[in-house]
Design a protein that fits this description.
Chain lengths: 399, 349
Amino acid sequence: MAHPIAEDAPLRTAEPRVSFLNDPVKRGLLVQFVLLVLVVGFFAWIVTNTAENLQRANIASGFGFLDYRAGFDIAQSVVPYSQDASYGYALLVGFINTLVVAVLGVVIASFIGLLVGIGRLSSNWLVRQISTAYVETFRNIPPLLVIFFWYFGVLAVLPQPRDALSLGFGFSLSNRGMFTPRPLFEPAFWVVVAGFAVGIAMTVAFSAWARRKQMRTGQQTRVLPAALALIVGLPLVLFVLAGSPMSLEFPQQTRFNLVGGLQVKPEFIALMLALSIYTAAFIAEIVRAGILAVSHGQTEAAHSLGLRPGPTLRLIVIPQALRVIIPPLTSQYLNLTKNSSLAVAIGYPDLVSVGGTILNQTGQAVEIVIIWMAVYLGISLATSLFMNWFNRRVALVER
Amino acid sequence: MFGQLGKQGWLIMKATSLPLALGLVLGLGAAAHAATLDDVKAKGFLQCGANTGLPGFAAPDNAGNWTGFDVDYCRAVAAAIFGDPSKVKFTPLSAKERFTALQSGEVDVLIRNTTWTMSRDTSLGLKFAGVNYYDGQGFMVRKDLGVSSALELSGASICVQTGTTTELNLADYFRANKMDYNPVVFEKLDETNSAYDSGRCDALTTDASGLYATRLTMKSPGDHMVLPEIISKEPLGPVVRQGDDQWFNVVKWTHFALLDAEELGVTQANVEEMKTSDNPEIKRLLGVDGTFGQAIGLSNDWVVNIIKGVGNYGEIFERNIGTSSPLEIERGLNALWTDGGIQYGMPVR
Ligand SMILES: N[C@@H](CCC(=O)N[C@@H](CS)C(=O)NCC(=O)O)C(=O)O
């Protein structure tokens, strides 16, 4: 409760009697209330006005169309899709395609960004120059141009499928994308999967044990060789013992395209490369800034304790740098996700592209735009929530 | 700074559907208005929705003047209203943008190789004023592919533009013939065509008229051929908004006047002499007799203005897409009914 003090009030003996409008709390509430009414009223007006306009113009409206048969095909889908599916399901396919690009893009961009960011601070002159050139080049070219560069400039000039570039082991590259063999699993393959899971579980247990031992005795145990043996070696041995329960399906040349195997389409490759490379340039700068923000005294202290440069970076500098890195990193992740809507330009069927097709067939522009906005907002909020949670976890705990 | 750069992705949406959808939301468009003809007269020019660049149908030439078959239709409407075929401005629209642009009132009429379909004529709130070009969907392939029929295209990658009837016909055709295909779907005409030209797809599909026009824009047009199959009916025509009968009539009767003029032998060159003709049909058409022009809110010499401005249907056809033009399209179905085609102008009576 605030206590406004009249100029000549000698002492606060009782609540001063002020008019309703002069009481900042009540006035504040009033302003908030009026604002709320205006905002709600504004949106109500927009909604009714839109509905009326659409009706007067005889344009169909409402979300009922989501159940109708789509009737068009989508080239790339993670989940099974046919033209008999509904518009709603087609949107879901587009949404998943967007997520795939966003998630993979974030992972690859973070990886490149970390390398380049550290590279810019490297003591090696060449590494430093290359990293700087990378950042300055890609940060300054609009992402759409980068996408076109990869799609029309690089991938489109690859040879036709019948003279595809062979990369060995059944891998090939052509203007239809990259083809790889597809593994076909036999039922006995579950042994290998189980072995893999066991290997991971045992590795986790082993590293916990190693950590405890280090706490107790100060002795370090190398975890990596054991981890490799457990996670890679164990399933491999089981694979051989179970009689190699897997075969490979190789892509076959047909009249037009390669058929069979796995195909990564050029639209996807171009979008993926362009978005990761573009965003990585920004992430590199964020990483560099984060590392520079950790005072050099920390490194010196670590060195004087006898830590080698590798562990110093891993154990001392990066954990502290993360606090500076994560908030701006979040907005880069959001940018990458939103930029993925540039997919329409090169025919990757993401949410915007599929939505555009539906918009056109049904004419329900308002509804589709609402869905677009809601989905991107949802993805962005989810990313922010996760990153904020992560940020709190790595935040320096003041002791 | 970071935030701003990342907004690029939204530009595409913003640039296309968003403002149009907003137009609908705020009702600023003429959607609420019914008197398009009065609005156009008050504005002093016709705003015509055109293609973004389909040679022969609608494309700006080197000097920035729009020319083409559909463009001349726009000019014909302008001539009917203003007596001056140049009082028209063009809004280039992609397949995806066109209907929202018309609905929201951004353009007065859409004359852009648009297929008359039932849903467009009903739930989109639009009305087709006629068919100025009877078309059908076809396929174009590179000659060296060695394909001579669309039925051999099983397994092919096919480039197609989104927002078209084309996309759906393609799906239907391949399913009906139990064939597989890989659709590669683009939003813009340029991107669709350059993807096909660079070999990303084995075939390009769209209206046959569009294929002939597109072939001219390929790096070497001679390397491509249009397959004989026509897999759909694509009646292309001018479109207006529902709820404005007067405007609908202006556009519809401009179309019929162009056909009637051809049938009666009225041409750009002889229209003045024809005014003195004894033929009562010609007299009515050219406004010598009767007040047909006034009845649709125009002057009685409206047809004289149209024909002086752009010529009759046959002249428009020949000049832009006919056998003497680079597109070399035969009249075919688009010949007058008197010449074995199905173009048929309703009588001015
Ligand atoms: N007639 C079909 C297709 C019309 C169409 O848009 N065709 C494409 C390919 S020829 C086109 O003109 N695109 C030009 C553009 O989007 O600017 C329809 O109405 O849906």
